[in-house]
Here is the input.
Amino acid sequence: MIDTVVIGLVVLPAAFGLYAYVGYPLLLYLAARGRRARAERSAEGEHWPTVSIVLPAYNEARAIGATIENLLALDYPEDRLQILVVSDASTDDTDAIAQSFSDRGVELYRLPERGGKTAAENASRFLVRGEIVVNTDASVRVDRHALKPLVAAFRDPSVGIASGRDVSVGDQEDRNVGETRYVNYEMMIRDLETAAGGIVGASGCFFASRKDLHGTMVPQALSRDFAAPLVAREQGYRTVSVPAAVCYVPRTPSLGSEYRRKVRTMARGLDTLYFKRSLLNPFRYGAFAFKLLSHKLARWLVPPAAVLALPALVALAVTYDWARWVIAALTAVVVLALAGLTWRGRAAPPRIVAIPAYVVSSVAAGVHAWVKAVMRERSPIWEPTRR
Here is the structure.
């Protein structure tokens, strides 16, 4: 009986991982098979709703000018577009640079004190005029033709949130090459979820909401890009991914900065899920609850399950050869990961060490995030990841 329990602890992280990353996508594929996502037309002669783009920024003087130029160049009727920069009490030249675009219609609102990204987005609720509100980041670049497909998704009255497609980009010298493969995988999952009815999390870099949904207050310690689809589902709307709404997201330059970003993102995600935990009830929310459990919670349970599995595996290794082989294999992965994490070459590390480094770093970040969530450590304010 004891051996059975201990073996169960060893199998647990593998079971969560295989289901979340392989089994769940397969179930989505089967559910979406034969269903064709509705394509939205975007003919020039059709009516386009008014749109407000909200750009939170904290000390983004190096990037804010280029970001605003990027938004001003979007293919969308100028007379139907509002660009609102919300400065999170920046202490550099962010405000002055944003104000220099006032003659081109760009508006600036400055928070009196730092509150974090969600606080800045909350403040914009009273300033946006558009029927559709788009949230984006100062560190990304939106494709010139991305806005119309994103907005066109709202011609379906069942859609409350529309999420763009992240494309991870970076230099050959980046140490964080594993992120690109993960982002591509995540976008594939969102396409399958959309075909099967809708997604459970939007892209924080580029997503749009109906104005009434954007007007919902989100606690500033939570993630609006995750909370928004949850709020939408509560109000009877669905959230979709729009492949043509491309947003280019620079990779974080190192695994260290990626680690910090993952800890922050997952900890806030866990808090957001707990805040909206009623949506996990499959008897009330059906397929949406199933997707939320599978896409989010099952993935997030892998790191703590792995922590429980390690001592159980060591205990089994005293008796079972297979446990010793598993420990040897895991040791090899960790050694490769350490080689990737300590890589000193000028070029990016080879895949044989880069991928293990990304995986091990992600698992460690997941454990750290759970500790922060369980200890109720809130991080509404942080230094934005410089990309």
In short: The first strand starts at residue 51 and ends at 57. The radius of gyration is 22 Å. The CA atoms of residues 72 and 83 lie 8 Å apart. Residues 39-43 have pLDDT under 50 and may be disordered.
